[in-house]
Amino acid sequence: MPKKILLVDDEPLILKGLKYSLEQDGYATDSAMDGEEALAKFFDGHYDLILLDVMLPGVDGIEVCQRIREKSNVPIIMLTAKGEDMDKILGLEYGADDYMTKPFNILEVKARIKSIFRRSAPAAETVEERRIVRVHDLEVNCQSRTVTLGDQPVRLTAKEFDLLQLLITHRGEVYNREALLETVWKYEYMGDMRTVDVHIRRLREKIERDNARPEFILTKWGVGYYFTDKD
After folding, report:
1. CA dist., res. 18 & res. 7, Å (int)
2. Which domain holds residue 143?
3. 0.90 exceeded by pTM
């Protein structure tokens, strides 16, 4: 069954181009031209990924992303015509997995989509990815891609889980921002290095009891991030 992608943009030509190109690659697509329509279609159907424009009439893309994240961890790629970092970071703050700035290259769009689907494919599992890792009262199930803290479920986006899985399965190993982008995003990423900091901060907010004194994800100042190696 083909992967289904929801395309959300208020520019008909962009929707038409994305729809044609993605369907040529075997994806099924659906489209919406404003935030309300996007939310209605999302909650009434099933989608494997969402391409979501930031600037939409009525309910904007940031709010759409936030409301979807309250119910689902479906991968979301934000599209923005603006060049300001704030729009890009805001999209990530509210749970987007990635962003692209217009005008974009359709080949890069497809590369990023394939990267996301490749990471979530069951056939790509390795022995290590089937492990259940426990540190203190934090449990990460790398097969079901679920996380619990003190027996309470923790909802993570796809990118947040990928980051946590990488760090917790390589405890004590320090990763700089470039290495995290290359390893987790799995393509030549041209965005702001602060994207990593945003994801790390969101991850800490979800699994740390005190962000000022984290016990799991630590910072090696001037170098990068690592998961504690203390039991």
Report:
1. 8
2. 125-227
3. no
